[in-house]
Design a protein that fits this description.
Pfam families: Radical_SAM. Keywords: Iron, Iron-sulfur, Metal-binding, S-adenosyl-L-methionine. This protein has helices at residues 6-16, 91-103, 120-137, 154-163, 176-182, 188-211, 236-250, 277-292, 297-302, 317-324, 338-341, 349-358, 366-372, 391-395, 400-403; strands at residues 50-51, 57-58, 61-64, 109-113, 143-147, 166-168, 223-229, 254-259, 331-332, 383-384. By secondary structure, it is of the alpha/beta class. Strands 3-4-5-6-7-8 form a 6-stranded parallel beta sheet. It has a two-stranded antiparallel sheet with strand order 1-2. Strand 5, helix 4 and strand 6 form a beta-alpha-beta unit.
Length: 415
Amino acid sequence: MAQLDVRQKLEILADAAKYDASCASSGTAKRNSRDGKGIGSTEGMGICHAYAPDGRCISLLKILLTNSCIFDCHYCINRKSSNVRRARFTAEEVVNLTLAFYRRNYIEGLFLSSGIIKSSDYTMEQIVEVARSLREHHHFRGYIHLKTIPDADPELIHQAGLYADRVSINVELPTVSGLKRLAPEKDNGRIEGAMRGMKTAMLDATDAKARYKSAPRFAPAGQSTQMIVGADAATDGDIVSKASTLYDRFSLRRVYYSAFSPIPDASAVLPLQRPPLMREHRLYQSDWLMRFYGYDAKEVVAAADERTGMLPLDIDPKLAWALKFREHFPVDINRAPREMLLRVPGLGTKAVKNILAARRWRRLRLDDVARLTVSVAKLRPFIVAEDWRPVLLTDRAELKPLVAPKREQLELFAA
């Protein structure tokens, strides 16, 4: 490998890290350095490559320790047989970069992942060393997210949780058969075993913290994972079911979905085209329905096409479910419980909260509902208000043309 300076390494390894979507976070412990004894801080709203709810643009230094790898996963651009330019940071270089970027106000934390070099244990030792040095030697109190390696020694993974705010263990693909076919060196049992160990450690840490104030925090922002969408034959139903199982078994904070992207010198077993990005978007919407709207996985899967197992791309899964199970509608806006209001297309959690508060004082009319939502047009076929009954709309055989969003040609250079 040619000798590269830190700037060249950063260019290669920051670009290589862009395929990992699971770099957002929330729920970490609040820390600051106002006492002058450290550097950095965290805030409760989380950190990502985007704008925070209060309007701040916040970001992480998102890099790989190295893009060299002894594994040959077909879908990975950094696989052993890939013809890409390789680079590798030392642990000290990552520490110095993180501190330098923080002092310049470029970042608020670090997201660190890596290819596998020498062995899983050796690589995990290097990742943990970065976090340990930042925390213990430099008293860094900013946010740290570490991508752990399930094949590594459990004690190393446990050490990652002691230094990091959040840890990730990627399941990679939604089905066991897909993982065996596209990543034969990885094992679903080891991946889930590492997740189970992380969950147990977090529960133990929570219990210890309740008993002893001096007990150390352990991954206070929880654990997350990522699935690649479209690299194998898994349907949306398979992906939603897998995500639901992971949430239930391992108390994950988030499951991320990453649309497969064709890579140079791709294996013949991979598809030639990437799946539509709208498919990834619909999966995130389905995930939201399970996490915040009270749907279980079977209900979300029921909204998919029975023949293909795929969610519709032209309408969101909540609307698809409502159109498929019209016997549950219309819902009386003045009487229905929160659980049913959350199933009305066009009503979000905030709107439902406002409706429940407002109807304590008066019976709501259609105009009242319109003031509490972005658009009432989508709601009309699915609700009953004081002055509104969708008699003709409810009796229509085909309701989708009335409620589906109109297709628009997006402008490439819109202001």
